[in-house]
């Protein structure tokens, strides 16, 4: 399947009016604890992050052109349709570890790390 | 509330000190939701397992555990930090594309097998939902998955993605509208 985030213009062209240019969020206030993408990583989060660049033209084009919907105040209210359907994960294949087994491995590895220090 | 938060801080402190039972309890709180989120990000069980392991190893680091200050729910902190780690890990791997064949390959069988009405709706909705999700930009799809599967709140999602909370809200709002439009009658049948 083709990668979907190719910035296709099925939702319209940039500058075509759409729902306005509210996708330009450089000056938008951040939630408490939300770092700017170029800000230093907080303690314990020294990974580079998800890699979504601010000002990505393809994403901003999509955001400004797509129709708006009434998002609930609490996303948990979506359980009636989106959350319920998305939350269904197919059964694991036989060669995959269960979630409990993955936890067991991680705990064992961390304890081994500690003993090896 | 204060008591619950104090208990979470105490649990995390013990986990950071390598108390095996505490560490397991902390990881258990997030593991199932992280796995479901990982699967919805890649639609591949093996990759999801790798992402889950990577996220849990990250969460089990003493410095990551000690970074929890108790100014919000522990579950939200674990999900935000774990999801952020999974997304970082995905950056370093070649994108293998969303796989929907193996996931929904039994839809026809389930329909032919006379599943109950709910099962039929579910089986017929999934491929359409998968296609609708795949039509979204990766950033929008990630927001939908984090909110609807990861059960993150807007602020937690914003923190995990490094996005302003207003952008998370507007992205989710637009993604919902696109999904509703593409799902059409199938969605109305399950709302």
Task: Walk me through this protein's architecture.
The complex is a heterodimer of chains A (117) and B (191). With 117 residues, chain A is mostly helical. Chain A has helices spanning 57-65, 82-86, 99-116. Chain A starts with 56 loop residues before the first helix and ends with a helix. Mean pLDDT of chain A is 61; it is low at 1-45. The model of chain B is unreliable at 95-124 and 187-191 (pLDDT under 50). Chain B starts with a helix and ends with a helix. In chain B, helix 1 packs across helix 2 (20-42), helix 8 (117-134) packs across helix 11 and helix 10 (154-161) packs across helix 11 (165-183). Chain B has helices at residues 2-16, 20-42, 45-59, 62-66, 74-91, 101-104, 107-112, 117-134, 138-148, 154-161, 165-183, 185-188. Chain B is globular. Chain B has 191 residues and is mostly helical. Chains A and B meet through helix 1, helix 2 and helix 3 of A and helix 2, helix 3, helix 4, helix 5 and helix 8 of B.
């Amino acid at each position: 399947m083709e990668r979907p985030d190719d910035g296709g213009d099925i939702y319209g062209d940039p500058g075509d009016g759409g729902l306005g240019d509210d996708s330009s969020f450089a000056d938008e206030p951040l939630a408490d604890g939300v770092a700017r993408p170029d800000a230093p990583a907080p303690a314990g989060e020294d990974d580079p992050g998800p890699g979504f660049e601010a000002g990505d033209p393809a994403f901003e084009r999509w955001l400004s052109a797509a129709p708006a919907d009434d998002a609930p105040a609490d996303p948990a209210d979506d359980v009636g349709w989106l959350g319920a359907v998305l939350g269904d994960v197919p059964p694991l294949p036989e060669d995959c570890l269960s979630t409990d087994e993955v936890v067991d491995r991680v705990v064992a590895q961390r304890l081994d790390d500690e003993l090896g220090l | 509330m204060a008591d619950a938060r104090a208990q979470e801080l105490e649990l995390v402190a013990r986990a950071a000190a390598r108390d095996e039972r505490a560490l397991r309890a902390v990881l258990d709180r997030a593991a199932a939701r992280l796995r479901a989120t990982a699967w919805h990000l890649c639609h591949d069980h093996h990759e999801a397992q790798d992402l889950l392991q990577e996220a849990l190893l990250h969460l089990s680091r003493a410095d990551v555990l000690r970074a929890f200050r108790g100014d919000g729910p522990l579950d939200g902190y674990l999900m935000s930090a774990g999801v952020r780690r999974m997304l970082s890990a995905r950056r370093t791997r070649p994108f293998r594309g969303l796989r929907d064949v193996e996931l929904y390959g039994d839809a026809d069988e389930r329909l032919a097998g006379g599943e109950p009405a709910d099962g039929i709706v579910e089986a017929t909705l999934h491929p359409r939902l998968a296609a609708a999700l795949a039509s979204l930009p990766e950033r929008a799809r990630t927001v939908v998955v984090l909110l609807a599967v990861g059960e993150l709140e807007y602020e937690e999602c914003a923190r995990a993605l490094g996005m302003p909370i207003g952008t998370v809200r507007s992205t989710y709002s637009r993604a919902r509208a696109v999904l509703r439009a593409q799902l059409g009658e199938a969605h109305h049948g399950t709302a």
